[in-house]
TrEMBL record:
Transmembrane segments: none
Name of the molecule in the record: Tropomyosin 3
Segments forming a coiled coil: 14-196
Keywords, alphabetical: Acetylation, Actin-binding, Coiled coil, Cytoplasm, Cytoskeleton, Muscle protein
Stated family: Belongs to the tropomyosin family.
Amino acid sequence: QGLQRELDGDRQRREKTEDVVAALKRCIQLVEEELDRAQEPLATALQKLQEAEKAAVESERGMKVIENRAIKDEEKMEIQEIQLKEAKHIEEEADRKYEEVALSWSSWRERAEVSELKCGDLEEELKNVTNNLEATSEKYSEKEDKYEEEIKLLSDKLKEAETRAEFTIDDLEEKLAQAKEENVGLHQTLDQTLNEFNCI
């Protein structure tokens, strides 16, 4: 009877052990199945992680390119700002020179008008002298040479004054036209620089 109980106990322990082993096998099978099911999402996740890392590298590379481009653009902007300041300075200098030429032209114009008035006075004086000579040629024949010399001097002075006035006017007109051309050219250069600056 004691032996029977011992055998029964061994059988029960064996059955429990077998049950535990069977349960462990089922558990392992379930874990393996779960692991198999998890492999695909894990592979997908790893692929997405690799893609994300690649995208991050590309993004960082793109950021460096953008930063380099921004630095170049900033340097270009600084250069263009300097060029713009120089162009404005040139324009101001051209305007100043143009004003100086215009004032000089006005002054020379006034002088030319004064010279023309003097020429008119000389012509009138010459006419008066000529008339006086004609009226008194018989009475003052001994002074004829002197009057002729005076007439010659007055005529030479008149021609010289007219020539000087013509040269002065021509020279000033040429300078004024040149200043206008330079001013137009400088304005065109400034407009081109401003257009390039605005296109950035």
